[in-house]
Amino acid sequence: MERLRREIIEYVKTRYKSTGKTPPLREILRKFNISSRKFYRCFPGKIEELYVLSGIPCHDVKIKKFTAYDEADLELEKVNLKTELRTILYKLQMNCLRLLNDPRANAILKSSEEIYDKINKAIEEARNLQELEKAKNLLTKYSNTFHKWLRSLIEQQIWQRAVELKRSMEHEC
């Protein structure tokens, strides 16, 4: 077992020096034809223990691990935010259709489409979760504003219809 341990450590050292990257666990298991169970008996501290024993700086191991998670999280957040953005724009478009004859609704729709493009670009260009959070805050701010304007227009239109209905009923009586 100790001999296998030394061979694996030597392999990882050599691989890291030649490529600048740490070999993944699957590669090590295949190379030495061992099971993960046997590997963990040799290295109870998991792959991190192996990397440390191989002389690989700990920060290299952590950076590699967290960068992969950060990139995956960032891409997932981008997809989620773009979906939310499309949903909000769709709802605005549907509400504007209810107000066909009102030029204010058309102005809101045009403005929202321009803002949509800007926010979508900010999402695509975000390089980290903090930049994506800024885009999300912008989306929330504009979404709330546009919905407030539309609600106001819809309420005005409902009120006008109610007044017209009341007048027509009075004329019939």
Structure described in brief:
The chain has helices spanning 2-19, 25-32, 36-42, 46-53, 58-98, 103-125, 129-172.
Structural description of this entry:
There is one protein chain. By secondary structure, the protein is mostly helical. The protein has 2 domains: 55 residues; 103 residues, no CATH class. Helices cover 86% and strands 0% of the residues. Helix 6 packs antiparallel against helix 7. The radius of gyration is 30 Å and the shape is rod-shaped. The termini are far apart. About 3% of the residues have low confidence.
SSE layout and pairing:
Layout: H1 2-19, H2 25-32, H3 36-42, H4 46-53, H5 58-98, H6 103-125, H7 129-172
Helix pairs in contact: 5-6, 5-7, 6-7
Keywords:
single chain, 173 residues, mainly alpha, 7 helices, rod-shaped
Structural class estimated from helices and strands: mainly alpha
Query: How far do the termini sit from each other?
Result: 101 Å
Taking the sheet with the most strands, its summary is: none
Helix fraction bin: over 70%
Beta-strand portion reads: under 5%
Q: Which regions contain 5 or more consecutive residues with pLDDT less than 50?
A: 65-69
**Mean pLDDT metric:** 80
**Sequence of secondary-structure elements:** HHHHHHH
Assembly state? single chain
Q: How many individual β-strands?
A: 0
